[in-house]
Design brief:
The protein has 1 helix and 9 strands. By secondary structure, the protein is mainly β.
């Protein structure tokens, strides 16, 4: 599945793949591309990663269920121009 979230400051596209063991792998891309801290909130807790300079990120071994992504600006200058982007909850 491919899902796109669009906001005034950021577009987040994610690809969701089912692993053989029943967990989920999430591959994502940010536009405009940049390195940002990323949090995946689930019923089991949070997983954290960061996008690379090209805006790419991945999380693996996620248990299926409700989830929400949070992308935060990485530096004080971008925090003034940008803001934290939180997606609606989705089912993985």
């Amino acid at each position: 599945r491919l899902i796109t979230f669009d906001s005034d400051s950021l577009t987040i596209m994610i690809k969701i793949d089912q692993n053989r063991n029943g967990t989920v792998r999430l591959d994502g891309w940010l536009t405009p591309p940049a390195s940002h801290p990323i949090e995946l909130r689930t019923m089991d807790g949070s997983m954290v990663t960061a996008s690379d300079d090209g805006g790419r990120f991945a999380l693996d071994g996620i248990r299926p269920g409700m989830a929400q992504l949070v992308v935060r600006p990485n530096d004080p200058q971008s925090a003034e121009r940008g803001r934290t982007v939180t997606t609606p909850s989705i089912v993985l």
